[in-house]
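Appendix C: a fully annotated inverse folding record. The material below is reproduced so that readers can follow the format used throughout the book. The structure is listed first as tokens, followed by the designed sequence.
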């Protein structure tokens, strides 16, 4: 749920600072995917890990290129969050498949 809060909060902050509709839309979408994935994992329902992994892939796909291009703190921070999610949920998903 921490990743859900971080990404949703980041989208809201981006909107508040710059008025960016894409920031709030992306932040809330990725945050919702992380939150729904977390709820499904906690309730032992199917596809929780897959939702969280999809959120990490979506976040990585948008933040990694911007982080490499701009070297600004916000895209770098989002890339770190995405990398953590990819590692954490990827390892859990891989373990569930074995």
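Designed amino acids, in order:
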């Amino acid at each position: 749920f921490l990743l859900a809060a971080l990404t949703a909060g980041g989208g809201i902050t981006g909107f508040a600072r710059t008025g960016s509709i894409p920031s709030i839309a992306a932040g809330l979408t990725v945050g919702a995917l992380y939150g729904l994935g977390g709820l499904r994992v906690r309730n032992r329902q199917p596809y929780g890990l897959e939702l969280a992994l999809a959120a990490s892939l979506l976040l990585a796909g948008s933040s990694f290129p911007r982080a490499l291009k701009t070297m600004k703190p916000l895209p770098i921070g989002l890339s770190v969050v995405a990398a953590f999610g990819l590692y954490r949920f990827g390892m859990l998903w891989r373990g569930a498949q074995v």
